[in-house]
Amino acid sequence: MEEGVSFVSQLQSALEQYRDYLDTTELPRLKEQYRILHTSFTSLYKVLLKKGLIHEDPYKKDLKISEISTPPDDNFLDSEKTEQMSIRLSMYESQLDFLLNFYQFRTDFLDLGRIKLLLGLTRYIAWDQFSEVSARINTKVLAEFVGKITKGDDPLSAGILKDAIDQIQKAFRNCITTLKKLTEFHKEMYKFEVRISLLSNLSIDRSRALQGKEEILRTLKKQFPHTLPGKHFYPELIVEILEEDYGPNGPELRKAVLEKFKIEQTVQRPKAQETNFKDILLEGIRALAAASRPMEEASQKLLDNSLILESRKRPLMERIKIWIQRMVQKEEEVLVYEVEFFDLTTSTTKKEPIRFHSFLEDIKKRARIYSGILARAGGGYKRLEQAGEEQLFTFLHKHIEELQIIHRRLSGLETFFRSEIPRENRASIRGIKIELTAIQNCIVKANQKRHDYVAKKEEMEQLRKLGVDVSSL
After folding, report:
1. Using CA atoms, how far apart are residues 169 and 127, in angstroms rounded to an integer?
2. Which positions ≥6 away from 394 have C-beta within 8 Å?
3. What burial class does residue 339 get, using C-beta atoms within 10 Å of its C-beta: 0-12 exposed, 13-18 middle, 19+ buried?
4. Residue 274: which H helix or E strand, with range?
5. Is 166 exposed, middle or buried (0-12, 13-18, 19+ CB in 10 A)?
6. Spatial CB neighbours of 210, under 8 Å, sequence gap ≥ 6
7. How far is C-alpha 14 from the geometric centre of its chain's CA atoms?
8. What is the DSSP code string of 375-403?
9. Geometric angle at alpha carbon 319, from 314 and 322, rounded to 5°
């Protein structure tokens, strides 16, 4: 019994460490690989359009995506090649675009269900077996299209396609590898939850556990919806638990499970205190950069709300006033919304005009910068790693203040649209409370790291004044 408790404790610790490893290392890398796959496929797609092998999908803009799905993969007649591939490749590109813009690359979001969807989309084209003799219709026909160009007399287009295929195949392999790691993590996390929530309360005869597994499965299936609501019942994973905890090869199986989640540790050499301070600043910057996704989502929702507001019916006098303003100004119309906010320094309510489209464009640019910082292998983060402490502190301080202003303006626009959009259209308003909370959390975490840095620097300065050799600490 003690051995079982020890294993569960070790497993919990290993899974927690591995979750952090996935969230901070593997999943940012996974998103970057999907970005490479999408960019390279877009290059391939444009060449096919240019060469007339496919045409623009007229229904592309009408496609509403709420969740990842794979385009059709059933057979079609030879005479339907152009039409079917035009639609399917357009849908594939839209799905990749949705994935990059709306999916959260975190372990709690990418559960087993979404991993299955991602694997289906990733393998929609068999990039690892890209051939004109493929048994899969979409892969076969796409390979034929690519072959027509690479074997033709346009070396520039052929070069673009060869490079695109090469990049796609590398990214494809990396994506599959990471998704397998993520799948293993979720399977063991699922088994851990079953052990804690169900099996710990079940009296099981160790000597008869495997022989009576069908009865155990029936009992657990009845209890499952009440104990673990919202989770699927995977009998094959529960059988794995029984084999690991009660089977004759249990010790070896449990050891293998723990080995799977061992993170390769590089030799940690003692770092000078100054380097540790730099790490604090980098952690703060990455905490702030996590606001990229909620910023993008909030800006899109506010744009939708603006379209609802601007399409409302206006009174005649208001329309005349707008027309006169346009005639007098004779310049491009700038959409400005005047929002209210509470100024903590003066304890008064103030008004602020916001040039709406410029504000949204600034958010998108900033979100792209932050996304680059989140990818540890990306150029943005590499440049920060090479920067000095003073530069990092200035960067963190500046961006915290700027993000606080953005948060204030987003909050003001949220209130503005809820009050200004006509009552009959308010059911269509897209709220951004969740995004505002997420951005605020990022600011709080980054601010904490900034305070930690200042506190440690002040502490070291005091020690220096007392004559303590801080380099040995």
Report:
1. 6
2. none
3. buried
4. helix 273-289
5. exposed
6. 242, 243, 246, 247
7. 23
8. -TTSHHHHHHHHS-HHHHHHHHHHHHHHH
9. 125
Q: Which residues pair with 349 in a beta bridge?
A: 342
C-alpha 15/C-alpha 185 separation (Å) is: 7
What's at 343, amino acid-wise?
D
| Domain positions in the chain | 2-190, 275-472
pLDDT at res. 410:
93
Using DSSP, state whether 338 is helix, strand or coil: strand
- In the three-class reduction of DSSP (H, G, I as helix; E, B as strand; rest coil), residue 107 is classed as coil
Q: Which of 43-47, 49-53, 76-80, 226-230 has the least mean pLDDT?
A: 226-230
C-beta separation of 161 from 26 below 8 A: no
**What gap in Å lies between CA 178 and CA 176, rounded to an integer?**
6
Measured CA to CA, the distance from residue 95 to residue 103 in angstroms comes to 11
341, β-bridge pairs: 350
- Round to whole Å and give the CA distance between 195 and 189: 10
Closest among 92, 102, 30 to 66, alpha carbons compared: 102
Structure tokens that stand for 271 in this block? 């770092």
**pTM, 2 dp:** 0.56
* CA separation, residue 380 to residues 282, 289, 375, 454, 464 (Å): 12, 11, 8, 24, 34
Cβ neighbours, 10 Å, residue 443: 19
CA 11 to chain centre: 26
- Cβ atoms of 385 and 435 within 8 Å: the answer is no
Task: Identify the DSSP state of 432.
Answer: -
Q: What is the mean pLDDT of residues 401-422?
A: 90
Q: Look up residue 415 and give its amino acid.
A: T
Whose tokens are 């004109």? That residue is 132
pLDDT, tens digit (0-9, with 9 covering 90-100), for 287-335: 999 999 899 999 999 999 888 887 765 565 655 555 555 555 544 457 8
Would you state the pLDDT for residue 319?
53
The answer to whether 419 touches 307, Cβ cutoff 8 Å, is: no
Q: Among candidates 429, 431, 440, 432, which has minimal Cα distance to 407?
A: 440
